[in-house]
Amino acid sequence: MLHVIISGAGIAGLAAAVSLRRAGHIVDIYERSAMNNEVGAAINVPPNASRFLQAWGLDPKEWRFVTARLQTFNDPKSLKPFIINDLSAAQTADTAKLYLAHRVDLHNALKWMATRPDGPGEPVRIHLQSEVVAYDPDAPSMTLRSGEVIHGDLIIGADGVHSVACETVLQRKNKPIKPMHANFCYRFLIPTADIEADPETRFYNENCEGGTRVIPHSDGKRRVVSYMCRENTIHNFVGLFSDDDMEAGTEDWQASVDISEVLKRFSDFNPDLLKVMAKASEAKQWPLLYRSPLETWHRGYMALAGDSAHPMLPHQGQGGAQGMEDGLALGIIMSGATSKEEAKERFKIYQQVRHSRVSVIQVLSNVGQDQLNEIRHEAARYMPEDRIPSNQQEVRQFNFHFDIVDASIRAMRQYDPSFELPSDFFDRPVAGVPNSDTLQRKTSNLVANAAKI
């Protein structure tokens, strides 16, 4: 049994805590905020994450997740769909599903799984208003802003996009780069009831449960994405755009702008869509900055997870899921480790399992699924080109069908042929990977003459 100290109680930090708890270790998380005013928009919980979250006991209905069924690409002038992707094709009873969740609901579910008094292992302790300002990966220890030094056997740095942990591991800054297309986005939420109450906007609620609309402009620099969350009671909107005259400062989810600025930015989109967007009371403006994949994720007795290791843009909807995959892998790989020296060696396995896959997704997240060919050459630095997706269906297969549980266990059995997970690591069987032949047959890409959705 090891004592693991984690910086950051975000999605990746909590997922790592759940997994390491179930592996039999003692876990303390140090979080800089008071966690009493959680904010955020919606988030995808795709099959590559939902399969192990549900095996850990998460009930999507209890946490008000929406089951995704459809993705459409809609014309910005007419709003008519010109591509329809049936996301429900592979979502049979025995496979994992794609869910759409409010970020706060997902965060609360992970926090419950980490700290619940019942279940395997000891409940995780979360220390609030405890900002980590420095790390010593060789001690190992973390120093809080108060001056207190926290010691443990292992450190997991999950302190987000502005990571001090990352700088400690790299021993340099990980400088952001301007992205290829959109360099800003607006995020805002609109209650379904507000849209329904207005005869001029209620069309947007029609047949939209579980649907994601992607509305790209022909200029290639602007697009609106929307989908529902929290039991279909809220529409989540993201407006992506590029503006070379605006200065991209700190990546801050809290920077508010008046909704009139959003409407002005997308003024040449369909006027009925603008009436819907006008229902928002305010929007958050978030600069989009890209960081290249890291050469290493660990140093000494310390490893990175989530945005600390691989901050990525929102175009593929995989940022949160990749942080949760990190957390799952850490628990499996550290199962049975009895000394910090042994665990330090296992960090190499963790990077082996995670680095190539996440680096490819990080690169592909620079563009939308309809712009992949612009970026595949860069992704080929991390994986053979014939394994890198080249179209929307291949992206879904690459992202959704990967089984991090199987990959982690196989890596551990190469390290130790006698490796076995604790019998209570999961509460129930892990959902299988959808059969790709079935998907090839069922997933439809319909064009032009589809009915308005």
TrEMBL record:
Belongs to the paxM FAD-dependent monooxygenase family. This is FAD-binding domain-containing protein. Keywords: FAD, Flavoprotein, Monooxygenase, Oxidoreductase, Signal. Transmembrane segments: none annotated. It comes from the Eukaryota. The keyword Flavoprotein applies. Residues 3-358 form the FAD-binding domain. InterPro entries: FAD-bd, FAD-dep_Monooxygenase_BioMet, FAD/NAD-bd_sf. It comes from [Torrubiella] hemipterigena. The keyword Oxidoreductase applies. One of its GO terms (molecular function) is monooxygenase activity. Residues 1-17 form the signal peptide.
